[in-house]
Amino acid sequence: MKIASEHRARKRFGQNFLEDDGIIRRIVKAIHPQADDNLVEIGPGKGAITSQLLAACPTLNVVELDRDLIPMLLAQFIANYPQFTIHQSDALKFDFSQLLQDKDGNPKGPLRVVGNLPYNISTPLIFHLLSYHDRIRDMHFMLQKEVVQRMAAQPGEKAYGRLGIMVQYYCQVENLFEVPPEAFDPRPKVDSAIVRLRPYQQLPHPARNVKLLEQLVNTAFQQRRKTLRNALKQLLPAEAIESLQIDTGVRPENLTLAEFVALSDTLDELKRNSPPTGEAQTET
Predict the structure, then answer these.
(1) What is the pLDDT of residue 3?
(2) Which residue in 129, 152, 17 sits closest to 73, CA to CA?
(3) Which of 204, 225, 207 is nearest to 216 (CA)?
């Protein structure tokens, strides 16, 4: 069954509207929404998933950038679901912490985030949401299949890199199932997949300086074909790497998250113990 609407998908918003009822039911079953959930949907589009989420959770919040879709969503849902709330905003800039309390300022439970994310902003949006990791219970996203593979990749796999390491730093990653192009209108040129992210209550490998870890991982995978020794020489001296008993002849893609954190902590220690750049040495 297709959702009747004259609204046409816009390329600048990366819109591909999900219209396969079987896939929609499978996604909602994976989410398993409950009435008391603090549920937010990013990019509801024409409301295909929204209608089933609202049936289970009438207090649903949605974040939608396209102004033209908002009257359509209100017309469909507001009469039956008066607590349904639409935030006309760019999800990349949206402050999700505002959803952690009700209109009277009373605290609400941790966020459950759902979204059929535009492929052109999916990675920066994931990183934006990870900044709220300690206030999120779980996230379910429709993404490009390749992106989900990168998020779930393990050391030694071709897809393993910056995205997977940093997502796995904060979350358990489950690649749930694939979605074919014909489930959408218009059809995307790539396959899609559904991923579940569950932020850890306690990080398994906490870094002393997360920003430094991000810099280290980013630097390493900018030169992923080089050995670890050569890829990181601008950040860490070889003797610092070797002090961790890690084979410096391997490529970055062979290191585990725990080993990257250990390297990051070593770099942080070196920075803390080094004199400020340009500080003059004086004799007394």
Answers:
(1) 40
(2) 17
(3) 207
For domain 210-272, the CATH class is mainly alpha
Residue 245 CA neighbour count, 13 Å, CB half? 0
The pLDDT-based confidence of 115 (bands split at 50, 70, 90) is very high
Whether the ω angle into residue 186 lies within 30 degrees of 0, i.e. cis, is: yes
Give the residue carrying structure tokens 């980013």: 218
CA-to-CA distance for 142 and 125, rounded, in angstroms?
Answer: 13
For domain 11-199, the CATH architecture is 3-Layer(aba) Sandwich (3.40)
pLDDT digits (tens, 9 = 90+) for 201-250: 999 999 999 999 999 999 999 878 888 888 888 887 777 777 777 787 88
Check if the beta carbon of residue 53 is closer than 8 Å to that of residue 31: yes
| Residues 114/140, Cβ–Cβ less than 8 Å | yes
Contact predicate 9/17, CB 8 Å: yes
* Phi and psi, residue 112, nearest 5°: -115, 120
Nearest C-alpha neighbor of 197 from the set 157, 238, 138 = 138
Mean pLDDT taken over the chain: 88
Query: What are the domain boundaries of the chain?
Result: 11-199, 210-272
Sorting pLDDT into bands at 50, 70 and 90, what band is 125? very high
The residue type of 253 is E
Token readout for 111 is 């966020």
Structure tokens at 36: 């008391």
Q: Alpha carbon of 39 to those of 45, 104, 114, 137: distances in Å?
A: 16, 18, 8, 10
CA–CA distance, 15 with 186 (Å, rounded to integer)? 8
Give 3-state DSSP helix, strand, coil % of the chain, rounded to 5. Answer: 40, 20, 45
pTM greater than 0.85: yes
